[in-house]
Amino acid sequence: MSSVRTQVGIIGAGPAGLLLGHLLHLQGIESIILEDRSRAYVERRVRAGVLEAGAAELLRESGVGARMDREGMFHRGIYLQFAGARHHIDFVDLTGHGITIYGQQEVVKDLIAARLAWGGPLLFESEATAVREIEGDHPVICYRQGDEEGVIACDVVAACDGSHGIGRTVLAATSPRIYEREYTFGWLGILARTPPASEELIYAYHETGFALHSMRTPEISRLYLQVPADEDLKNWPERRIWAELRLRLGEPGLPSGEILDIGITPMRSLVAEPMQCGRLFVLGDAAHVVPPTGAKGMNLALADARDLAAALATWYRSGDRTALDAYSDACLRRVWQAEHFSAFMTNLLHLDAAHDPFQHRLRLAHLAYLTRSRAAAGSLAENYTSAATGLRAVGSLD
Ligand code: APR
Ligand code: PHB
User: Fold this and answer.
1) Which end of the chain is more exposed for a tag (fewer CB within 10 A), N or C?
2) Residue 375 placed within a domain
3) Residue 288 neighbours by CB under 8 Å, 6+ apart
4) Which atom in ligand 1 lies closest to the alpha carbon of residue 161?
């Protein structure tokens, strides 16, 4: 059994774990990152794709934004499509900030490349199996790499291992409050080789359900359809997917293209509170989950990493634990704001299981309000562009 020591033991090489390791390295703090999957797997996994202005700036400032600036697509706002018409919500006009479309796996690739360039320890196909002694000053992570078992002794454990990792399980044993909501629907998502039909994202509310038109490059579209949470992909042959997208998006000419990736993701909201216990700190999806309608998941993960890295840097530099002790409280303010916005967008744009006609009319009324009122549109824009990273929005009260 191998045994090593580091300052910060990080579980998970998603956006949260990789950015944390990167920011700690910039502060001269050592870390080891364990990742259960292979490098090829995490670099290929298709996930979210929207960066708030604050998240894009964070990547840029920390030296990993060059490819994002070259290949990412800057959008001024989004389109809302409902009742047969399309309306633009111009975030730049409303808040001074836009968004950047850049796939999560591209962020992951850039952060992995940056870490491997200086020889930073990043162990792929290494599964954390237990976390011990978090109440004392010398926590340990046990892990398995192939047939080998290993132990990492550290000062602090950062669980960045997503919604199915052991981080939440270890935290749960310390009795946090878990707030949770399941939705009766999920998203069928495809990545397709077809040029986007619109220059910016279209969020569509239709009598047959929600649809979203997003993109990755000028040749690749990312498209989603609301389906029942327990839907079987077998019910969705390609012809049906394209027909339903054309109908819901109001794009009768949307050209079909080769489907490069397909899957159904159930939706839920979850917050574990507090997000820390002793020497264990929990980040990203391991601590909180949002439905994807508000595009907040990756942004929250990056913001948690930014906040924990800053708190750890203060602690290592001066011994002052104040910011570290306040990590969870600082994150949860942003997290609940993003939870609220994500639930709001989800309820606004999806048909409920009962197809309640009253709810349907309320949604249409609110959507119409968003297109008529600068104050209502401004609130949506403020949340869409900065709820997760906490960038001060124009007109904010504090
Ligand atoms: N040991 C090591 N690694 C693990 C373990 C384990 N026991 N369990 C899970 N992992 C890894 C997963 O393989 C994954 O690569 O942890 C990583 C967690 O990464 P993400 O799921 O991307 O989570 P996070 O960094 O919090 O980013 C959140 O991901 O799912 C999206 O919508 C979500 O955009 C948001 C983002
Ligand atoms: C995506 O591009 O994958 C995407 C965009 C907006 C969302 C969710 C996902 O709200």
Assistant:
1) C
2) no
3) 270, 271, 272, 275, 300, 335, 339
4) 16
Helix axes 327-349, 357-372, angle to 10 degrees: 110
Q: At a CB cut-off of 8 Å and minimum separation 6, what does 203 contact? A: 78, 79, 80, 81, 210, 212, 293, 345, 349
Query: What does pLDDT average to over the chain?
Result: 96
Given the CA of residue 345, which atom of ligand 2 is nearest to it? 10
Residue numbers of the domain that contains 159: 2-77+98-180+268-350
Residue list, ligand 2 pocket, CB within 6 Å: 48-50, 201, 212, 214, 222, 292-293, 295
Q: Does residue 295 sit within a domain?
A: yes
Report pLDDT digits (tens) over 43-88.
999 999 999 999 999 999 999 999 999 999 999 999 999 999 999 9
**Max CA pair span of the chain:** 65
The pTM is what? 0.97
**Per-residue b or e along 71-93, where b marks 16 or more CB atoms closer than 10 Å to that residue's CB:** ebbebbbbbbbbeeeebebebbe
- Whether 225 is in a domain gets the answer no
Q: Domain with 154 in it: what CATH number?
A: 3.50.50.60
- Cα 385 from Cα 393, distance rounded (Å): 9
Instruction: Report the number of distinct structural domains present in the chain.
Output: 1
pLDDT in tens, 81-132: 999 999 999 999 999 999 999 999 999 999 999 999 999 999 999 999 999 9
Neighbours of 301 (CB within 10 A): 31
Where would I find the H helices in the chain?
A: 15-26, 39-44, 53-61, 66-71, 91-95, 104-117, 167-172, 238-249, 297-318, 322-325, 327-349, 357-372, 374-386
296 is catalytic: yes
Establish if 165 belongs to a structural domain: yes
What DSSP designation does 47 have?
Answer: -
